[in-house]
Input
Amino acid sequence: MALSILNNIPSLVAENQLNSTQTSLSKSLNQLASGSRINSGADDAAGLAVVNSLQANVTALTQSEQNANDGVGMLQVADGALSQVTTLLNRAVTLATESATGTVNSTQRQALDAEFSSIKTEINNIGTNTTFNNSSLFVSSSTSIFMSDANSAANSTIAFTLGTLSSSAIGTSSTGSGPVNLSTDSLTTASNASSALSDINSAITNVAALRGVAGASINQLEAAGNVMSTQVQNLTSAQDGIQSADIAQTVSDMSKFSILEQTGMAALAQANSAQQNVLSLLK
Output
């Protein structure tokens, strides 16, 4: 090869190789620092698109699982309230049974009716004041729990209706023979007590049916939550497989590029000094 001083080709080759090595070393260090194989679109454009889609799925499913858990919490509050209503109605059964017997006088029946009235008032209070997240639970409208995996075609809802709850309407049109009205019942006479007892027993049946609706919806929401939890686990695993850096391989690459950087620096220094040998020809 002819000697030349216009251009130092070996130096340019060494410099280009050194630049490439430093770029690769910087990428390895970035992957180690972030733990991610894909830190920009330049690393893997297709992989980044898949990872972003999976992240959206995981985010939507995680919130949907929380929505389902919130729905379970709401229904558990409603079930607790209905359990207390059942307790009150069972006490009303005792009062009506006692008032219906002939051994009780009118004064005693007035006392029994007073307690029965307080039971009806408390049922009204439960129906009005039982709330979840500042929203009344016992309303005529349906409550929908929204769930999604960030794909609009896969959106779904689980809806349930508890209906209103008051002494004048215990139960819904789908429970037993329909809502039971206790507000007009009294225990002031044996005949009235006997009629009230029939209504109270129907009300107990209706409350049990409402608790059945709540229980079935709880089971459905818990099942949906379990499915979404499994989906989150699997999607996260898929995302991790695409995005996460192989630490062992990356450490190996870093060591290799670190050594190459040192040898490249040495080679560049040798290439720069080699051309100075031309000066020996001028001596």
Remarks:
- The first strand starts at residue 131 and ends at 132.
- The helical segments are 9-34, 45-100, 106-129, 190-243, 247-274.
- Strands lie at 131-132, 135-136, 143-147, 156-160.
- The chain has a mean pLDDT of 87.
